[in-house]
Request: fold
Amino acid sequence: MLWPSLNAALNGLSAVLLSVGWVCIRRRNVPAHRVCMVAAFGTSVLFLVSYLAYHLVQGHVVFAGPPTVRPFYLALLVSHTMLAALVPPLALVTLSRAAKQQFDRHRAIARWTLPIWLYVSVTGVLVYLMLYVLFPAQIAV
Reply:
């Protein structure tokens, strides 16, 4: 269970960095904002590599919780997965615009990128808790 725990930690750290970065920019601390957002991106890239490696080796994981919880889990998982597919392109465009000093365009897309990315990071931790802590999963090979 090392990889799932690492993945959850990386998702959680990404959520913290995104939140601190948001607070920094609200306080007009651009250098700290930049550090937090670049670190959040790096953390998310590490997560993605770790997640893909784990599932390549481990295979499919089956939810083992009670049937009454399954609809909530599936709704969470589906929303998480669909929005997770948006995060890499959104994050790349958002960071690219900041790097090019196109701050008006950066702000315009960051208003969408941040809440989606934050939702994906937090729900990633919730999925981990439901699969490996609350209702230990069965591995289907």
